[in-house]
What does this fold into?
Amino acid sequence: MHELIVHGAEWTTKAGFVYPNEFIYWSIQIVMYPYMTGLVAGAFVLSSLYHVFGQKDLRDMARFALVFSLCLLPVAMMPLLLHLQQPLRGIEVMFTPHFTSAISAFGFVFSTYAVIVLTEIWFVYRVFFVEQSNALKGQPGLVNTFKRVVYNLLTLGAYDLSPEAVAKDKKAIKIMAAIGIPVAGFLHGYAGFIFGSVKANALWMSPLMPVIFIMSAVVSGIALCMLTYILIMEWQKFKAILAKGKGDESVELLRGVEMDVMTTTARYLLMFLVAAITLEMLDLIFRGYTQMKSWDVLREVMFKEDFVKIFILQYGLGNAVPFILLLLPRPTIKRLVVTLVLVLYGVFMMRWNVVIGGQAFSLSFIGFMHYHLPIIPHNWETYKEGLCGALTVVATPFVLFWGVNKLIPSLNFRKQ
Amino acid sequence: MDCSRRKFLKSACAATAAATLPISAFRLFSPAECRAETGKPGTRWIFLVDTEKCVGCGLCVKACKLENEVPYDAPVTRTWVERYVITKDGKPHIDSPLGGRDGFTSPKIDGEEIKPEEITKAFFVPKLCNQCDNPPCVQVCPVGATYQTGDGVVLVDRKWCIGCGYCIMACPYGVRFFHPIYKVAEKCTFCYHRISKGEKTACVQACPFGARQIGNLHDPNDPVTKIIMTQRVGVLKDEYGTKPQVFYIGLDRNVR
It folds into this structure.
């Protein structure tokens, strides 16, 4: 006997006249999906700024951003699988892609992107793999033997460390990073297209949607990379203080590196933030000015039902406040952390207001739906499409990074 | 190991060719080819709703739920009836409790009792899938699990639908939902299993007033086609470019 669950009925409340079959079908996981792919794309673009455009100031950040975007990769797919009613059939998107659908491209764009990221990482770390393999040669112990086997495999048999070979690696990295930028942009821009092309949804339908999505993606990707970088540097500083005392040279060195990297990266963050806000405002103003049939209900949603979420939390707390904080003179790490958390929150709220906000009004244009996020799960559905499911998705890249970083350290600043 | 570039490229080409060979055993279908395989030739199913005749009894909704195994008490339904009450201030009051399954027995709409002397006009509007000529739901399905038959009906393959909900989002009429048991997209099929055997749809058969009729647009002698050709009929939400094929007599501007 199957369990009878009307998908969406659990977390949707209706007001006014709403068609019987309308519910919030796309819930928290569809908020997470563009958010996570945005982080992937953003992290990759950040790393490419160094590899392609030679932004030397981003060197330390670039390596970390690249590895982190690898850890974020599987997580971009996770929310989609968690949201599918038939997750085991998800692979059909690869088998029978129906190319008139925006979603059908997902498998292909995503795999292309994954291949690019993996290739680039391999070229970046090839020398390291060979060095490790050589260093571990003849060392006793089962763990060392195992590690050596893993590194041997990772070299893929390319042990050449001659200057010509290394130069070729560098060239390959540059090419991969250059191809990667449009693909990362496409990966996320098309996530925007998935929403922007739904003509039935008055809030989503906009040709600006893909561009808005790319800009906010880069903003969130940079912010997350910066935040993670700060956390890791603080941890290293803490360890150095414990080991050598507060006034030690190495502590000062770490502090200097951290501040340098952060102030330069913050400039890029600010640039993309301005672009994102400008586009969103343009979209809003255009809708208000043209006053199409849907404007009445959109206005009701934006200025009444969801006013706090859109104007206070997203534009105010998530955009305006960090914008001012970034412009203030004499930056400090503490202030930067607050700024970054707010930026990430702002982009999340933007995703929320697009995905949930787009379903906040009925197709009848005179009814409203409210989404109540399931906090404590009582069945599989309320777990995966509730707070716990979202937190699982958020936690995964960090767990992956912990594992991946053991094999390909992206944070060994002292050696450089 | 000697591995020159020439050798590498050579074996790579050979491996690719060997890998592609079995793939050539598969056949690529064009959508038009598939469409020709399904549906009766020379048929385009259409639907006619006469809102002047509908009294909101809900027998159509009941019949549909029973015929098509949509759980009776679930709040989702393939077809439904909406009640419109327009008051003197020009405001429309609309409801459709349980899709109108049990009729409209309460004078309250949305918890608000409307005085009879306040009402200027009131009517019922049955709704169902419009079996659009340009169906956005078919366009957006990422795996091709929903498709249009040669005779114009949009169906869902329950064994292939991944349950992403994109088709539900793409439908401007809100006719799609997730089946509470099969967990895949569900919609009105014009009772395809019945009409392809020459029977009427369950809702048409259940309607005691003849407010619902099904016909074949390609048959000039079909009574429904005659009405559509000779009388003034309307469709819902024309502006989306979906080319809906459910036609309405007596459509009011307040109908959503």
